[in-house]
Amino acid sequence: MDLWFQRGAAWASKKGCKKAEALDRQSVKNITVIRHGAIGDQVVTRVFIQEAKRFFPNAKITLSLVNTHAYGAPTDIVDSVHMVHKKIDGQKTSIMQRFKEIKSLKNQDIIFDLAGTSIAKWISLLCGAKLCIGYPYREIENIFYDVTVKRSDMVLETENMLHQLYILGAKTQRPFDYGYEDYGVEEENPYIVYFTSASNEGKTWPKEHFIALGEKMAEAYPQYQHRFLDGLHAHEKVDDIVASLSQYTNVAKQEVLAYEEAMRFLARAKMAISNDTGVRNMAVAVNTPTLGIFFATIPYRYWPRDGMHEIAFTGEKQIPTSEYVFEVSSHHLRKIENEH
Predict the structure, then answer these.
(1) Is-contact 5 167, C-beta < 8 A?
(2) Domain range summary for the chain, segments of one domain joined by +
(3) Do domains 10-166 and 191-339 have the same CATH topology?
(4) Has residue 5 got a pLDDT over 80?
(5) Most exposed: 34, 127, 134, 166, by fewest CB within 10 Å?
């Protein structure tokens, strides 16, 4: 295989170029994709795996995970799973055990590191793959790989991952294929989903803003149910928000759902409104239009520009007002209704 890049976009060692040239795409038999991250990271990885399966039609795909970040991992679309345990029964595992599990991955033709964690780097370095491709955060990290692709905050993360296939000459399809079934949309009792928390407080739009938005949306769009999705953890609970909106008969709480049920629930929604969080990535993956609220994180890395997804982002590092988010939400909802 040839490497397709120009200076600045990627890097390859001389040895890496020769390793790539020695591989034939049709003869590649074993590929590992390394992904360590929360549910949102796991969901977007599905696109990469689907495209890798197309580009390497004769290869078996292994997904390499750490057990502390395996929830929602796309194990249903790979051939096998390689697991490194960071904790067992709440206790940290030993370095020796981790290295033993790392080195249990053998006979790989290509490793794609989509994680960039320390464990991922050691997997890339020690597992003896014929070709290793990864993301370096610093140039010195190139020592772990044969080929590296630059990561950008200005490029959609899903697209950035696919660059590791582009450099080998892959042609990928649009729209993205996440490998989920088509759940359809709820027509009889249409609803809009709201998810009010995020992975950390700094990315979380204030609850009083969500309450104000809920009031405005419930009044302006009585034809929709406005469903506030409960989360697993204490800071993700929405009882106080829903209680503050109890005067609106079209506002309700949605209890915590198991992963597959949550995907179906999100898929059948008219729109999902949330912070920069994994739930929004889940909604994107099942083709539900989204409105993301961004003010602490750079939005371009998580904003698919296909017309189905919009962001409430002022361009300033300030928390958007409820009036502004309502204006953007209303405009996006009208666009969705007109197009569908």
Answers:
(1) yes
(2) 10-166, 191-339
(3) yes
(4) yes
(5) 166
7-16 per-position pLDDT tens digit = 778 999 999 9
Query: Minimal CA–CA distance to 180: which of 309, 37, 58, 72?
Result: 72
pLDDT at 57 over 90: yes
- Among candidate residues 298, 293, 297, the one with its CA nearest the CA of residue 320: 293
Whether the predicted model's global pTM rises above the 0.85 cut? yes
Q: In what order do the strands lie in the sheet with 80-84?
A: 10-12, 147-149, 131-134, 110-113, 30-34, 60-66, 80-84
Inform me whether the pLDDT recorded for 82 exceeds 80.
yes
User: Which positions ≥6 away from 162 have C-beta within 8 Å?
Assistant: 47, 48, 51, 170, 172
Q: In CATH, what is the architecture of 191-339?
A: 3-Layer(aba) Sandwich (3.40)
69 Cβ neighbours under 8 A, 6+ residues apart: 36, 37, 38, 41, 42
- Quote the pLDDT of residue 340: 67
The stretch 320-329 carries a mean pLDDT of 97
Query: What HEC string does the chain produce?
Result: CCCCCCECCEEECHHHHHHHHCCCHHHCCEEEEECCCCHHHHHHHHHHHHHHHHHCCCCEEEEEEEHHHCCCCCHHHCCEEEEECCEECCEECCHHHHHHHHCCCCCCCEEEECCCCHHHHHHHHHCCCCEEEECCCCHHHHHHCCEEECCCCCCCHHHHHHHHHHCCCCCCCCCCCCCCCCCCCCCCCCEEEEECCCCCHHHCCCHHHHHHHHHHHHHHCCCCEEEEECCCCHHHCCHHHHHHCCCCCCEEEECCCCHHHHHHHHHCCCEEEEECCHHHHHHHHCCCCEEEECCCCCHHHHCCCCCCEEEECCCCCCCCCHHHHHHHHHHHHHHHHHHC
Q: Which fold has domain 10-166?
A: Rossmann fold (3.40.50)
State the Cα–Cα distance between residues 11 and 14, nearest whole angstrom: 10
